[in-house]
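Contributing new records

If you add data, match the layout below exactly. Sequence lines come first and carry their own label; structure lines follow with theirs. Keep one chain per record. Anything else will be rejected by the validation script.
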Amino acid sequence: MLRRVRLVVFDFDGVFTNNRVVVSEDGTESVVCCRSDGLGLRRLEMVNVSSFILSSEPNSAVVRRAKKLKIQCFSGVEDKLVLLKRELGKRRISPDETAFVGNDINDAECLKAVGMPVVVGDAWPEVRPLAKLILARDGGDGAVREFCDMVWLAKKARR
């Protein structure tokens, strides 16, 4: 199944992060991410797998982190499924060739819509049954890198 993946779509909060936010006295929000995720994203590029972030959170930290990682980002998206379907059509990629990595109930419709639904190790109980793959790592603790490495290895084995 991993060999067929041409596109990986990631939720942000709870996938790239540990789903926590630090709020400073002036209201500035900060999140913690795993540095090794960036190397995982580069590995996807090496095997010609596209990726993007699809987040319902309208937080500038999402956009800034995506820019640093050089990954396309859609943030503040109210209906993730509509955007996912639109992007699949634009990219001419079938749902069967798509993986979605999520962690919470607002990811459920996207998880149901793709051929490779994936959740992080600490995903909410309601979405765990929707996944074909539950990662060993929790969100914000290298889960993105774990999945990217799995796809990379599967694609390299095919060569």
